[in-house]
């Protein structure tokens, strides 16, 4: 979800104690205010901003360009990790919009950033590398987490890079201004119907992503994020951010205890793989006592290098779990169903067909 534009594609945040909530509350990717992600500012409609840009379609043949899909993605990924900047990020998904102010700095060995929500309940998130703390002033609570996935398309460097061209192609479509900066427009197009496409505006000099749209069928914009103002190479103080991160006076600090595990150890497996998606991590909530396999809520994360899917599994509770259902908010879809004595929620920014394939493939091994 740290809530900046580049963590928008990160693996879903694991709130194990709240797995029975609405699926959209499990993710950390959409907007800075939900992070998952989004709140409302000066974001124009897609039609006005696109200025007639070509629409993407599944299976479209990319036009000749100067960079391959891996070269484009690597450039964007590194720019998101190494540039210092401040800006206002606006995210829209369906009828929902949100905005956040971002300060980002790096010194070559570590990166830090602060994200303040500008819409909805006030919230400040500060990250140092994979250490994250979120302050909620109204409730006077602070949530401390560790997030392994950083940068834009965070799994890009942890999944076999040679697989991405098998499922995506790149097409350069022109140059436009975003937040006062010239940006190359690039479309990352899916080669099958199991994933969405992306239209990305990459700042010409640095490669930093300044705007991103998630595309559905016939190039329909499902969700978009854009800087409404951006200052590159901004004088952001890392020392000041470190002091703010450590100052929890007056806040009740919560630190979820997560245990790294494997689905096999918890008694689960996929009887059929979903093409392109690789298992990236698996965690359960550590209750501090010995638990039988399958008793603790579990999150199993998969990625194809760009898109992520999370499988949340917990013991079935007739009072909390209702009928099987599907939910969509912007590009995020979820499918929930009962699997034996457990309740499964599959969540990701992929088409519902992909989630159903995961749901049908999950089975109990004991």
Q: Can you put this structure into words, describing what you see?
A:
This protein has 2 domains: 5-254, outer membrane lipoprotein receptor (LolB), chain A; 258-364, MucB/RseB, C-terminal domain (Phosphorylase Kinase, domain 1), CATH 3.30.200. Residues 1-64 have low confidence and may be disordered. The protein has helices spanning 46-50, 69-82, 164-167, 238-246, 352-361; strands at residues 85-93, 96-106, 111-117, 124-128, 131-136, 141-146, 168-178, 181-190, 197-203, 209-215, 221-232, 252-254, 258-260, 268-270, 278-285, 298-303, 308-315, 325-329, 332-339, 342-348, 362-364. It is 11% helix and 40% strand. The chain is mostly beta strands and 366 residues long. It contains 5 helices and 21 strands. Strand 4 (124-128) and strand 5 form a beta hairpin.
Keywords:
mainly beta, Phosphorylase Kinase, domain 1, 12-stranded mixed beta sheet, 7-stranded antiparallel beta sheet, 5 helices
Summarize the structure.
By secondary structure, this protein is mainly beta. The chain has two domains: 5-254, Clam (outer membrane lipoprotein receptor (LolB), chain A); 258-364, MucB/RseB, C-terminal domain (Phosphorylase Kinase, domain 1), CATH 3.30.200.100. Helix content is 11%, strand content 40%.
């Amino acid at each position: 979800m740290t809530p900046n534009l580049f963590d928008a594609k990160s693996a879903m945040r694991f709130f194990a104690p709240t797995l029975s909530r609405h699926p959209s509350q499990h993710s950390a990717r959409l907007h800075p205010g939900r992070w998952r992600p989004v709140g409302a500012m000066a974001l124009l409609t897609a039609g006005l901003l696109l200025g007639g840009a070509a629409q993407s379609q599944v299976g479209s043949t990319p036009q000749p360009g100067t960079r391959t899909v891996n070269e484009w993605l690597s450039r964007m990924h590194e720019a998101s990790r190494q540039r210092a900047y401040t800006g206002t990020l606006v995210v829209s998904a369906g009828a929902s919009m949100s905005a956040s102010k971002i300060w980002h700095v790096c010194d070559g060995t570590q990166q830090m950033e602060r994200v303040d929500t500008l819409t909805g309940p006030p919230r400040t998130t500060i990250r140092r590398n994979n250490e994250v703390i979120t302050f909620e002033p109204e409730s006077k609570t602070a949530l401390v987490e560790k997030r392994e996935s950083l940068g834009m398309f965070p799994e890009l460097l942890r999944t076999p890079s040679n697989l991405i061209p098998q499922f995506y192609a790149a097409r350069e479509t022109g140059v436009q201004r975003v937040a006062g900066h010239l940006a190359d427009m690039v479309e990352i197009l899916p080669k099958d119907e199991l994933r969405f496409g992306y239209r990305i505006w990459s700042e010409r000099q640095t490669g930093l992503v300044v705007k991103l749209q998630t595309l559905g069928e016939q190039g329909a914009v499902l969700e978009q994020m854009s800087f409404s103002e951006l200052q590159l190479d901004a004088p952001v103080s890392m020392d000041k951010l470190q002091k703010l991160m450590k100052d929890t006076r007056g806040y009740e600090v919560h630190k979820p205890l997560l245990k790294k595990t494997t689905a096999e150890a918890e008694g689960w497996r996929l009887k059929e793989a979903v093409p392109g998606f690789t298992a990236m991590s698996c965690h359960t909530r550590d209750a501090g006592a010995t638990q039988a396999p399958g008793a603790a809520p579990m999150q199993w994360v998969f990625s194809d290098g760009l898109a992520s899917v999370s499988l949340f599994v917990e013991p079935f509770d007739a009072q909390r779990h209702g009928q099987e259902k599907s939910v969509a908010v912007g590009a995020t879809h979820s499918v929930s169903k009962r699997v034996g004595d457990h309740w499964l929620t599959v969540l990701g920014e992929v088409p519902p067909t992909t989630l159903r394939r995961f749901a049908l493939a999950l089975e109990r091994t004991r």
